[in-house]
Design a protein that fits this description.
Blueprint: E1 11-14, E2 18-26, E3 29-35, H1 45-57
Antiparallel strand pairs: 1-2, 2-3
Length: 71
């Protein structure tokens, strides 16, 4: 992991087309602005972790066993 120090309104550019800017600092909260092409998904880590955990707990789509009813 690369660790960089940035001040308010300073930016980091990743791969020439993703710009990460420090837009606010209040106490130990930092607001980050991200400019990236629409084709690049951006999601908070805790939401990604929740989505992965949810996907691991549910059966894969299309593989559910059909319920047969006997009449």
């Amino acid at each position: 992991m690369l660790v960089l120090s940035r001040k308010l309104n300073e930016s980091i550019v990743v791969d020439g087309n993703i710009k990460i800017t420090i837009v606010g600092i209040r106490g130990n909260h930092v607001r980050v602005g991200i400019e990236a092409p629409g084709s690049i998904p951006i999601i908070r880590q805790e939401l990604q972790d929740r989505n992965v955990a949810s996907a691991l707990c549910s059966p894969p789509v299309g593989l559910a066993t059909p319920v047969s009813s006997s009449v």
